[in-house]
Amino acid sequence: MRMYNQNNKQKMMMHNIMQFQVATLDAALYLDTHPNDPVALYRHNAYSTQLRQLRDEYEMMYGLLNNYNPESGETWRYINSPWPWQSM
């Protein structure tokens, strides 16, 4: 039962990350054509901050989501856990 809840939580976290990635990208694309819109800028900043927090929490619990982050250990750990799309 605990493993099921763990997988369910991981899937839910990944789903939230994907939602904030889309929202952040959408806000950025809008800002490309409306750079002086303060509401859009506020939303982009809020979405990207939330996305960073979600990604940090996910990576602490389940491992790295991509290989663009600096490695903090002495070995390349990105390949040690399932790829993000394999844990879905």
Automatic annotation (TrEMBL):
<feature type="domain" description="Protein CotJB">
    <location>
        <begin position="12"/>
        <end position="86"/>
    </location>
</feature>
<dbReference type="InterPro" id="IPR024207">
    <property type="entry name" value="CotJB_dom"/>
</dbReference>
<keyword id="KW-0946">Virion</keyword>
<protein>
    <submittedName>
        <fullName>Spore coat protein JB</fullName>
    </submittedName>
</protein>
<keyword id="KW-0167">Capsid protein</keyword>
<dbReference type="Pfam" id="PF12652">
    <property type="entry name" value="CotJB"/>
</dbReference>
<dbReference type="InterPro" id="IPR016571">
    <property type="entry name" value="Spore_coat_assembly_CotJB"/>
</dbReference>
